[in-house]
Amino acid sequence: MKEKDIFGMAMKAFYFDKDETPIIVHSPDFDDDEIAIEYLFRSYSEMPKTEQKALQLSHGKVLDVGCGAGSHSLYLQQKGIDVKAIDTSEGSIAIAKERRVDNAKVQDFYAENEQYDTLLFLMNGTGIIGNLINTDNFLNICKELLKPEGQILIDSSDLSFLEDEEEPNDEFDRKYIGEIDFSISYKGKQSEYFPWLYLDFDMLKLAAKKNNFNCELIVEGDHFDYLAKLTLKND
């Protein structure tokens, strides 16, 4: 039987028992990798500059999507910002509440129906889109959730550096480099595989323009990553 809440299991073990066993990330496209659980509990000073900048720019009523242990929401709370933290992981939300995130709920982003000044998608925020073909639907839902002068703050990475330069470039049916299937495991329990999207900035900007958004590159990170801000164009 596949385990659905790997992140929740690992966060609870770390928070309550100081268990630092990492989460293992599996993909048919790459070698196995690890996620250090303590990184999910990082403070503002330990965050990459893309995340720090996103938190600096967050304002008004904020929706923190895929909040995990609540590190971003806690920082915003301390600044006096009204933030709602959501995640599909019950264990993650339980830990976010333990850490005193005031408004944390087990919820899918696609089920949200309130409006916000800031939609915050961090730790490869474009991953929630899943596949390139879902980008328009994602942005249309964001439109419904944004207040008139609202903003989307979202980060991702350009994985084109991983492409084999010797591969032919005329394969029209070749999958976009940023579309990855992942599974995660922890202490012998493994999740189902799920789609995750890394979207390079040019592709994001193209999708934004198509869906009537302005798209601004805010800051570039140290590992082909970036933070972007999207705002609705005035009709």
What's the short version?
One of its GO terms (molecular function) is 2-polyprenyl-6-hydroxyphenol methylase activity. By secondary structure, the chain is of the alpha/beta class. It is built from 6 helices and 12 strands.
What does it look like?
By secondary structure, this protein is an alpha/beta fold. It has a domain at 47-160 and 172-177 and 198-232: Rossmann fold (3-Layer(aba) Sandwich). The protein has six helices and twelve strands. Strands 5-4-3-6-7-12-11 form a seven-stranded mixed beta sheet, with helices on both faces. Strands 1, 2, 8, 9 and 10 form a five-stranded antiparallel beta sheet that branches. α1 (6-17) packs parallel to α4. The chain is globular and about 55 Å long. It starts with 5 loop residues before the first helix and ends with a strand. GO terms for molecular function: 2-polyprenyl-6-hydroxyphenol methylase activity; 3-demethylubiquinol 3-O-methyltransferase activity. This is Class I SAM-dependent methyltransferase.
